[in-house]
Amino acid sequence: MSRLSHLDSDGRARMVDVAGKPVTERVAVATGRFSTTTDVVDLVRADDLPKADVLATARIAGIAGAKRTSELIPLCHQLQLGSVNVDFSLEGDSILITATATTTGRTGVEMEALTAVAIAGLTLHDMTKAVDPASVLGEIRLEQKTGGTRGAWRRGPLRPGTAAVVVASTGAASGTREDTTGPAIAAWLAEHGYAVDAVTVVADADVASAVRTVLETAPAVILTTGGTGMSPTDRTPEATAALIDRELPGVAEAIRARGMASTPTAALSRGLAGTAAGTVIVNLPGSTGGVQDGLAVLDGLLDHLVAQLAGGGAHEPDGAPHA
Question: In what side-by-side order are the strands of the sheet with 136-146?
Answer without folding.
Answer: 81-91, 94-105, 24-35, 136-146, 153-154
